[in-house]
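Lecture notes, continued. The same structure-token format from the folding unit now serves as the input rather than the output. Read the line below as a description of shape only.
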């Protein structure tokens, strides 16, 4: 994927990989077959590079340090790789820089491990210091009696072990951070990662957490990467705890699985960004160009040919879904739980994409994968409001805006109103039009439950000619804004919704311009007819 990005930027990439048929070989400018653990091979390879970078931290750091002393440009720096490839050293480093972490300590024998269990409690996370990824090198002891077996699974104390206090997290988050040669730093939107057997399985962007948590996660990630040396893209994996803390789990000094969605969802993919950073180009815009994205890892379901068949069937189903892109890594060997590719879904909201993902996976109850998600919700307290509210629906249909029309009473079905308003954004709704007569509480109550814009339509009731409804809607308390139109004027509510959506939709904005031109021409045609025929003839037609 780095080679794919480089091909668009006139950057020549040569790769060092021990496999003759590695996935990058078909795309790279050149491929040198050899081990990146062999010092002589790496030195020979480095002589051919203007910049030397790595997409794995499990490399010979001593060789990188030697190359840097010889004037080879390594990005990120060997000092950073040395810190990160030893997870215990990584924890010590970030602790010294004031980064919030789960409590941890080094262990060298069973007695020290038992004391750690007494101090931190159980379950207790035991980790290998080096060569640990995708859950490998981690073991959980649920009691003191399980310590010995957990240590044996990890290869014993001779391997180098440490323990972490169990982090009572409710979500695992991640932030891709880019650092330029000029030490400029940009953070991508915070994502949620979901793991299957300790391997990243699904990534949701952006993470469904409050803005305060997103800012805190970005701040922790920014501070962590500021403490390291060198340019490139880094992945900062985080825990969100029940009490709202953000704890750093670990950092990867390279493009990462949690950032694969950026190829389709962001203005600058993590791969393009890494290349920009290491060669000294300005960093690109990391913001999302689509409201939401889900990345689904294609993990091997079976060995050999049966596994390939299952994966290809899933790709075929994915390509029936709007906004789906498949990436196949072309690894020559299929193994269970091996990352063989990924599928990215982009669309109006994570909720809509979750439904499409379930359809892709053929989960029960999710068959309408091509169903268009409504962008505008039209709600009213009673079916007696429908003769008025239908005008908003007709306008939106005329502009090709998908809608849903529902009866949601603030007084008779408050639970339904709460559920509708609080879930609207996640279901892909972008604007809500709420019609109400009399006390007209519905627009304001809906606006108090959603961050979406709400347009209130005062509906004329049997008394007070709708003025009571109008005054009720326009007198919302500060902090609960509701846009309002004239009594019974659902047509203008529909047009206002189109204009709101048109801010981020060029086609809709063009259609609104055409609507205004057509309205002007209609009026001018009538004016010209009146001028030519005279008022008496005009009225008698």
């Amino acid at each position: 994927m780095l080679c794919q990005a480089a091909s668009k930027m006139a950057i020549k990439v040569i790769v060092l990989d021990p496999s003759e048929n590695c996935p990058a070989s078909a795309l790279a400018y050149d491929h040198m077959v050899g081990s990146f653990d062999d010092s002589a091979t790496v030195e020979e390879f480095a002589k051919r590079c203007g910049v030397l970078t790595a997409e794995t931290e499990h490399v010979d750091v001593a060789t990188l340090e030697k190359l840097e002393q010889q004037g080879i440009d390594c990005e990120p720096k060997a000092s950073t790789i040395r810190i990160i490839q030893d997870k215990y050293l990584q924890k010590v480093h970030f602790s010294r820089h004031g980064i919030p972490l789960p409590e941890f300590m080094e262990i060298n024998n069973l007695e020290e491990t038992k004391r750690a269990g007494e101090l931190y409690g159980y379950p207790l996370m035991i980790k290998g210091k080096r060569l640990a990824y995708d859950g490998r090198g981690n073991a959980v002891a649920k009691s003191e009696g399980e310590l010995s077996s957990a240590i044996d699974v990890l290869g014993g104390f001779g391997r180098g072990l440490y323990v972490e206090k169990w982090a009572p997290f409710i979500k695992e988050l991640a932030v891709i951070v880019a650092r330029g040669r000029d030490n400029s730093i940009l953070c991508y939107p915070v994502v949620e990662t979901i793991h299957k057997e300790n391997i990243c399985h699904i990534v949701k962007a952006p993470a469904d957490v409050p803005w305060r948590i997103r800012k805190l996660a970005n701040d922790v990630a920014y501070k962590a990467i500021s403490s390291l040396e060198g340019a490139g893209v880094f992945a900062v994996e985080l825990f969100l705890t029940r009490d709202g803390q953000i704890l750093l789990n670990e950092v990867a000094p390279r493009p990462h699985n949690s950032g694969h969605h950026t190829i389709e969802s962001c203005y600058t993919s993590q791969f393009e960004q890494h290349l920009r950073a290491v060669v000294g180009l300005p960093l690109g815009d990391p913001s999302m160009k689509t409201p939401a994205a889900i990345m689904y890892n294609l993990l091997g379901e079976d060995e050999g040919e049966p596994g390939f068949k299952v994966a290809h069937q899933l790709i075929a189903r994915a390509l029936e879904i709007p906004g789906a892109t498949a990436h196949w890594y072309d690894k020559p060997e299929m193994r269970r739980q091996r990352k063989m590719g990924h599928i990215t879904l982009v669309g109006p909201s994570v909720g809509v994409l979750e439904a499409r993902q379930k359809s892709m996976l053929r989960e029960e109850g999710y068959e309408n994968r091509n169903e268009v998600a409504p962008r505008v919700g039209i709600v009213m307290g009673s079916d007696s409001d429908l003769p008025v509210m239908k005008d908003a629906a007709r306008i939106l249909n005329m502009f090709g805006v998908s809608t849903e029309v529902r009866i949601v009473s603030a007084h008779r079905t408050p639970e339904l109103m709460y559920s509708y308003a609080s879930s609207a954004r996640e279901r892909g709704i972008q604007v809500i039009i709420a019609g109400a007569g009399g006390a007209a509480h519905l627009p304001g109550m809906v606006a108090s439950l959603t961050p979406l814009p709400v347009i209130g339509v005062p509906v004329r009731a049997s008394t007070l000619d709708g003025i009571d409804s109008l005054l009720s809607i326009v007198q919302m308390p500060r902090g609960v804004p509701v846009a309002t139109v004239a009594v019974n004027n659902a047509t203008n509510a529909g047009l206002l919704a189109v204009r709101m959506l048109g801010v981020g939709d060029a086609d809709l904005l063009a259609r609104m311009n055409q609507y205004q031109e057509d309205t002007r021409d209609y009026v001018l045609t009538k004016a010209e007819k009146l001028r030519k025929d005279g008022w008496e003839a005009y009225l008698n037609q």
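Point for the exam: The radius of gyration is 29 Å.
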